[in-house]
Design goal:
The structure is a homotetramer. By secondary structure, chain A is of the alpha/beta class. The first copy, chain A, is built from twelve helices and eight strands.
């Protein structure tokens, strides 16, 4: 197992549906991937929250996973979210992604029942034992219902060999401080909370996992570049410039807002699956205005 | 559509698995249903949280649903949980349950993404429009991630014709007060939080949705009888007598503790599906002690 | 030390101010006390939250304390709230109340800084050591900022001899269950959360600490009587009848709503001290309507 | 009214007590002030949380206020916390501080009762109307029990002329983003949460309100200097270097830890007032170790 160096702007893909919502629109998915890569993102992440991974059948999930990996074709690393409600299903997805060339798999301990720390650790261990691909541990209590403490995260990181990265999305910047401190600077962490983009980089995050580059890649990349250039003033200005859009897509829901934004730019990707609504007209108008300001 | 009168002790069934966890053990499921009915529960509810509904494949879900309905065979009403992550999947399950004879279907707005009130209403409306069976709306933010306000619940109740019952599991007794007050006594509500069994009946709940009758049916029924007999002192004494067990099964997780308890009484139902652990030895010993005290 | 048997409806007094707010209106205070006792409350509690104890100078606090005790004159037991921000000040108040005849003193661990469990225990111990009067421990995180766990409460109860009663105001009925269970039925607990009046009695509370009898004493007492008579149905009906008023006074703030209500009945007690506003006109109208319905 | 330019490191003073805790040790207070100024802090803030302002009698408060202002003697600006539980008392303190030369007064809406937005606004307006000195609005729900929304803060800022600065201590960095965005860069905000020192400066805070310079002034100042020099990498390294100490003083309580730290450096300032404990021996040892590492 060689761990790829994942850093910078990690672009999350949407999953385009046909007009009636029943089928995956693979050509549109290909275009959205190309657009992200052409615009300079440092990695591609299919089937995350933005990709409505939770709303796909197993067959659809496989289809999107296989297609995405083939289409990225190693131009940049690909990080496939393989979370599922049971350990057996998550293992199946992890193996599938590995077999089709995933550079990293991402695992959120999604579960209906609140899991104990031992259950979470065993879940990661079972997935880790079943593949040779690096795992990005993902903490996002807002969607998973499970908040992993920094101690638990470090325990998993130190116990499961191929857990080599941490994506933190609690929205509490102090979690990153603790990962940095208690991990003695040896735990690569990535930010998954858009409105914390500036602070996460200030705190030492290696990358920013975000769907925003579907809409404003240049600003996302410029923020990262300013950080690399050690230019805090420029980073701050770039952050505040894009913050209204970052807040908008968070508040409006990533699948709805990103799909609406892509539609505005000519890339038709269908609507989100119900019960998630497409962005309402007022929201589309607001999004249009926000994007216009950022041109 | 005739709405059945659902009241009293509504027993939730586990989903028994084979020893290796891969298959459903239908004979064991039948035995657990018979045991609940023989012990006097007023309704049977398969495929809820206790039934690990979220951890089943669609084929397994259909199998359990069909078998349970056939096996109950109208001895008591059956309430089938048909929650699923997308509206389309929940509709499919609701129709399936209806076609196989469900008296009521229960719907939790389970979703990966936080849903707006409009999205939740539309979800219920879509399910309601697709069947002629009464719907029990289920509010349980701890498992669904979505907390429906009393105002939203009443809006759905008043808007969607076949939403005729509300199961409340927030653990906040004041929600039931508000359902009673703002619903002007016309909204039948049911308690889904075991440690609130006494207070929910005091507040006017029509029934108690619980997995406890798998283990201590006589005490559950006696509490309800004391309430019907307007004997608060007896109800209080019965409540405190069973409270340690109610707290234990809540804290230990319903599938793990109920399956362990059934095993102690000779009804082998397998283990929960990973990532959920079976009850550890220390827990089994503690459960054994609790049950012995209640004999 | 003889512990008085405190039970039933414990009426909290307001602290009347002169029209310009600068002085205590003792005659009005006397009238409000007489009214509570004449209407049948089982105990009187001056200088609590309702009594704006936190907003008085030390001299004013002494004046109200001394006057109230003299005026009640042992017709019923008197429970004086002696909470203060430092241990030395709380000790001084406790001694003052004791010297002037208090039957019980009530102590909330009010503090600017979050206190450790050891600090809270020491605070109670210091007060307990300085007097021979029973202490009612008071848990109300919403006003004190400190939430005492049931374990801490029981530790204080078992460690400090004259802590012999617990007033619970978290609004979480399960705290009372735990006090009952872990205290093995030996810890007298009192409800301080008006909307939980019914459930607290169902759970075994010895009494209800409330400012409501300033306005609707008959209903408060009838609820308690129904509980004593083991008549759950009557208790439930009485509870729902008074619940809108209980919620109104909680939501509107006790000093503002109780003073407004007393004014409506002809007992002028001035306004609350700023920054607390008197009840606005719309609120007064609403209160008037609620009271009219309950006549 | 001339608004002083408040920026950089704003040092909070402790209030030294005599050995038996009954009197203020003014010479020690003078030494602690001199030490802060000699070490380069940009402003001095007496009687804040660190200064145990809430635990002083009115006479003591006046004594500390007057002495501190006279002793600082305009070497740097002085910001006096004048918060009190009633509006009348806060007005009195504000006038007192102004009369004795305060450059700024700081106001936390400390209150026993939860205040409405209108009540909070009126509180600030009453204080503002009574003085000609600039006011630093202070939001710290952990100690005041009142969390002011950004909208309310901006409303007060725009309505009350002499509210010209905002100190934010919720610990949520996104509050600062909103102050910056919705205030269109015109609302000077200051960080009051030690572990957010780096992120607050990254987000554009004008200063850092902290008791830490009593112990590690050089590191606090160096962090600010790195930010001024636009050197994010240096700022990050300086931040992580001092973070363990910042977390320690926050967790251990500022009066206890800062007084213990001053004692370690030879400046005896007595103990905090009960119920707050002095730092226990184990804590002193840990603090000694932390300080030694930072030398």
């Amino acid at each position: 197992m060689t761990t790829p160096v994942i850093h910078g702007i990690i672009g999350y893909t949407i999953t385009p549906f046909s007009a009636d919502g029943s089928a995956i629109d693979l050509p549109a998915l290909g275009r959205s991937i190309d657009q992200l890569i052409d615009n300079g993102v440092h990695a591609i992440a299919p089937l995350g929250s933005t990709g409505e991974g939770a709303y796909l059948s197993d067959a659809e999930w496989d289809q999107v996973s296989e297609f995405s990996l083939a289409h990225v074709a190693k131009r940049v690393p690909t990080i496939v979210s393989v979370s599922d409600l049971t350990t057996a299903k998550a293992v199946r997805r992890a193996r599938f992604a590995e077999q089709h060339g995933a550079d990293v798999v991402m695992v959120l301990p999604a579960s209906y029942w609140k899991l104990s720390e031992a259950e979470i650790l065993a879940h990661y261990r079972a997935i880790g034992d079943s593949i040779n691909t690096p795992i990005m541990l993902y903490n996002n209590p807002a969607t998973s219902g499970t908040d992993m403490s920094v101690d638990l995260i470090l325990n998993i990181f130190n116990t499961v060999d191929n857990v080599t990265m941490v994506k933190e999305s609690t929205g509490d910047i102090q979690r990153m401080h603790r990962l940095q401190q208690r991990g003695e600077g040896q735990v690569p962490f990535y930010n998954g909370c858009n409105p914390l983009a500036l602070e996460a980089f200030a705190a030492g995050a290696k990358g920013w996992c975000t769907a925003a580059p579907n809409l404003i890649p240049a600003l996302n990349l410029a923020l990262y570049d300013a950080v690399l250039a050690n230019d805090l003033n420029a980073a701050r200005a770039l952050f505040y410039r894009q913050l209204p859009l970052l807040e908008f897509i968070l508040k409006g829901g990533l699948p709805a807002t990103i799909k609406a934004g892509l539609r505005l730019t000519g890339l038709e990707a269908g609507d989100p699956r119900l019960p998630v609504f497409p962005l309402a007209d007022a929201g589309v108008t607001q999004l249009h205005g926000l994007l216009a300001q950022l041109k």
